[in-house]
Amino acid sequence: MEESTGEWAVAMRNWDVRLRTEEDLDSYLSRDFGKEVEVSGAVGFVLHFRRVYTYHLMQTFLPSILISLSSVVSVFISPSLVPGRMGLCITAFLSMISLFNGGRSGWPVTARLKAIDYWCGGCYLTVFAALIEYCLVLYLTREQREEERRRGDKRSGGCKTFRLALAARVESWSKVVLPVGFLLFNVAFWATVGRSPGEGGAGDGI
Residue 104: its pLDDT value, please? Predict the structure, then answer.
């Protein structure tokens, strides 16, 4: 049987697809079915799918990294600057929600969790942790100031000192935990996605 071979590119959204005819159709079918197959008037072809990540990198990953970093940077702003720091935390959180909701229409629909789902969870956790940390600091410091104005009592100095010291400790720890945590999350995520699907990587699930 005379066979013609060739390769063509097929245009698909976010996919690089190559259509190639099989050079040796007899051996190809025998290899797949495990036995000799007599071929007569048949055409064989192979589809090679390779996901193109440029769209997701520019439209989803890069903006979400910048938004997450803005939340991480907010812990270095003085807690006394309430409008600026709270506004940054709230804006980052809402922007993250809008970003992922807008890009969800272009993501593949599967019954299992994809790599992009883990990425969303990590980014949501980062911005939410920065917001909750500042709310806790505000609770510890502002409640104490109101208590001072209300009581004018020196006897509560021990409690005041404890709460202010706790707020300062929370601020100090957050300046380490949030940046390092987000960095480790990125290292673990991209190391996992970078593996080929044959090695158990999650790159095909983006």
Answer: 80
Partnered with residue 10 across adjacent β-strands are 17
Number of domains in the chain: 2
The kind and range of the H/E element at 51 are strand 45-51
- Cβ within 8 Å of residue 84, ≥6 positions away: 77
- Which range of residues forms the domain containing residue 106? 54-195
Measured distance CA(160)–CA(134) in Å, rounded: 18
The list of the chain residues with pLDDT below 50 reads 1-5, 198-204
Q: Whole-angstrom Cα distance, residue 67 to residue 61?
A: 10
pTM of the model as a whole: 0.69
User: Dihedral of CA 183/73/136/140: which sign?
Assistant: positive
CA dist list (Å): 38 to 26, 41, 46, 139:
7, 10, 19, 79
Distances (CA, A) of 139 to 110, 132, 135, 144, 155: 42, 10, 6, 8, 21
Question: Do 109 and 37 belong together in one domain?
Answer: no
Handedness of CA 151, 82, 70, 175 (dihedral sign): negative
Q: Do residues 22 and 118 both lie within one domain?
A: no
Domain check: are 99 and 21 in the same one? no
CB-based burial, 5-21: b 16+ in 10 Å, e otherwise: eeeeeeeeeeeeeeeee
pLDDT given for residue 141 in this prediction: 84
Q: Looking at residue 198, what is its pLDDT?
A: 44
